[in-house]
Structures are given as structure tokens and as C-alpha cells.
Design a protein that fits this description.
The two termini are about 15 Å apart. Helix 5 packs across helix 6. By secondary structure, the protein is of the alpha/beta class. About 30% of the residues lie in helices and about 25% in strands. The strands form 3 sheets. Strands 3, 4, 5, 6, 7, 14 and 15 form a 7-stranded mixed β-sheet that branches.
């Protein structure tokens, strides 16, 4: 098969790779029909995730058709169209029993495109298939569904739920890329008073407005003061960091009100300064987290019923064989206007 293979920091190639097969009774092999590129993949290519070694097939988001299952798989069978979750769950360890699948200690967690070969390929082996793939109804489009593999559960669980968004809140989303936009969409489910999006790109701020943000501000135009002006000097109830760089994390901690919640969603490759000399007295809660994907069945039901506008985030579509071109477009989002890039198998 063909696959996108990591060859070391700054280097990838769409090349021949071994076809995956069943290695454990809980495995499924899926023929990939739609796959997307995540900001985390860009961090990997930069060298920010040293656990990913040369030779690894990248990617952790996909929709496809099951072609083979191990003898222990009970919930899907060959021919089933499925969503491949970015998180694999053994279902037996302490953390899986608490539905904290991202922290799985039984061989799961974030493994696809990280510690085992991933989804940016023609075929992918998915471990622990009973808990790690989700059957899709025929009414759900593959492009819309693939955004539920990672970014929507991540935004919802690590941003909205961890941040405790509630009715009447002022929510600031710092970073209006795909994760930030998904956070805007899913924050609206809890009826906040206002959602403020912060970004350096005007196109992304416009996208945030179209998806429900009541106010937007450029990151280089004093967003802290902007939030203060809208809240009578108090600050945001919830601030979500959706970029993964020190400056945006510090922006969140400086715009939060006393008693507020900072939810860090971004993947950080460098240390960020935590200003405890200012925060200790403010009763501020800071949360971090890797997505668990425990919310995926809920989000899938909402998508199937037309309640979740996922496909609106997709700005570019490619065929699988155009993987390197798609990476180039996605990595230059400020120039290309790319939000979410989806690739599909040629028919």
C-alpha cells in the first residue's frame, strides 16, 4: 500500500509501506476512505513529539470500511463503514473503566500515528476495535464524520467540558484554527452569553463569526483589554488555549476573571511561563488534557441529526495520493486559508 511515512524532523514521504494485518484478536483492518491532517501531525513533522520515530506512518483520524477483523471483535464486521477514533481503548485498565481512554495503560491511548502506524495510508490496523471504531449510518457523509475522529471530541472534552462552560458565561477561545472553531461550535451547546474568538488571521476570525462567535479580536490588538472592556473589567469566565505556544497560554491566564477556568487544549512543544505570582490569589483553575473520545457517540448522534456543523470547517479536499501537497497547504494556513484539510480515496 501507499502511506505517508515520517522520515525525521522536517521530512515525510508518500511511499510504499507494508500492508497491515491482524496482529491481535481485538484488531480490525480498515480500508481508508477519508482522512484528515491534524495540527498535531505538524508538530510531529517539526520534531516536537520525539516518541514518533522515523519509519512511522502518520495520522490518527479516518473514516473507512472494515476489511478484516480478529476473532475477538464483536461490534463490527467486514463491510461495515466506520469512524476510526484517534484514541484506542483496551477497555480493561483503571483509566478505561473511568472512561479516560486517552490515559489507557493497557496498550491503547493515542497510539495511531504515534507509537504504531496510523491512518494516513490506504489501510490501517486499529487495535481494540470494539471500543476504537464507531459504525456510521449511511446518512452521515464521510467528510463530515472524519472531523469527529479528533478535533470535535478534543474541543468538546478538553475545552468546553474541562472549562465548565455554562449558561451566561463569557468564553474566550484563543486560536481560531480547526480546534478553536470546533470549540466555538460546541460551546454554543451550553448557551454562554458571548463567545470571543482571538486569532491573528482575519479569515479565521470571519470563520469564527460564521460559526457563532459574537465577538472577535486579532491577537496583536490587545485581546486582554478587549475582553476586559466587554466584561466591565472582570475578564472571561472561561479561556481556552487552542494554539499550543507560550504566548497564547499566557494570554489566556491574563484575560481570565477571578474564579475563572483556563482550559489548555493546544499541544505545546516549548515551555510556557505560569505567572503564579499573579494567579495564586485569583482562585483560577487551569486544566490540561488529552482527548478521551468518550463523547464521540454523543457527537455522532448530533451529527446524524443535523445538529453539528462539522463539514463547514473543511476548506480543502484532496485525493490520498496528493498527501504531500495537502500537508504543504495545511502547513501554510496563513497563506492558503486552510482550516481543515480532508483527503479521500479515489473511486
Amino acid at each position: 500500500m501507499k502511506a505517508l511515512v515520517f522520515q525525521g524532523p522536517g521530512r515525510t514521504a508518500w511511499q510504499d509501506a507494508p500492508d497491515p494485518g491482524i496482529e491481535d484478536a481485538a484488531d480490525a483492518v480498515v480500508r481508508v476512505e477519508a482522512v484528515s491532517i491534524c495540527g498535531t501531525d505538524l508538530h510531529i513533522v517539526k520534531g516536537d513529539v520525539p516518541e514518533v520515530t522515523p519509519g512511522r506512518v502518520l495520522g490518527h483520524e479516518a473514516v473507512g470500511t472494515v476489511v478484516e477483523t480478529g476473532g475477538g471483535v464483536r461490534t463490527v464486521r467486514p463491510g461495515d463503514r466506520v469512524l476510526v477514533s484517534c484514541i484506542s481503548a483496551c477497555g480493561r485498565c483503571r483509566f478505561c473503566r473511568e472512561a479516560r481512554y486517552g490515559q489507557c495503560r493497557g496498550g491503547g491511548g493515542w497510539v495511531l500515528g504515534h507509537t504504531i502506524d496510523g491512518t494516513q495510508a490506504e489501510y490501517v490496523r486499529v487495535p481494540f476495535a470494539d471500543l476504537s471504531v464507531h459504525p456510521l449510518p449511511d446518512s452521515v457523509d464521510s467528510v463530515a464524520a472524519v472531523l469527529l475522529a479528533d478535533i470535535f471530541p478534543t474541543a468538546y472534552e478538553v475545552g468546553v467540558r474541562n472549562g465548565g462552560v455554562g449558561p451566561g458565561d463569557t468564553v474566550a477561545v484563543v486560536g481560531a484554527g480547526p480546534i478553536g472553531l470546533a470549540a466555538v461550535v460546541t460551546s454554543r451547546l451550553y448557551s454562554p452569553e458571548r463567545i470571543i474568538a482571538v486569532d491573528l488571521a482575519d479569515a479565521r476570525l470571519e470563520a469564527a463569526r460564521s460559526l457563532g462567535a459574537e465577538a472577535t479580536v486579532r491577537g496583536d490588538e490587545e485581546p486582554r483589554q478587549f475582553v476586559a472592556d466587554l466584561t466591565d473589567g472582570l475578564g472571561a469566565d472561561v479561556a481556552m488555549e487552542a494554539v499550543g505556544v507560550p504566548d497564547t497560554f499566557e494570554t489566556c491566564t491574563r484575560m481570565i476573571r477571578p474564579g475563572g477556568r483556563v482550559a489548555n487544549i493546544g499541544v505545546h512543544g516549548r515551555p510556557a511561563t505560569l505567572h503564579l505570582e499573579e494567579l495564586w490569589i485569583k482562585d483560577v483553575t487551569i486544566t490540561t488534557g488529552l482527548v478521551d473520545t468518550s463523547s464521540t457517540p454523543l457527537l455522532l448522534r448530533m451529527l446524524a441529526n443535523g445538529r453539528l456543523p462539522t463539514a463547514e470547517l473543511v476548506t480543502h479536499r484532496f485525493e490520498l495520493g496528493q498527501m504531500e501537497e495537502a500537508y504543504d497547504v495545511f502547513s501554510r494556513a496563513a497563506e492558503t486559508g486552510a482550516m481543515k484539510v480532508v483527503l479521500h480515496a479515489s473511486r
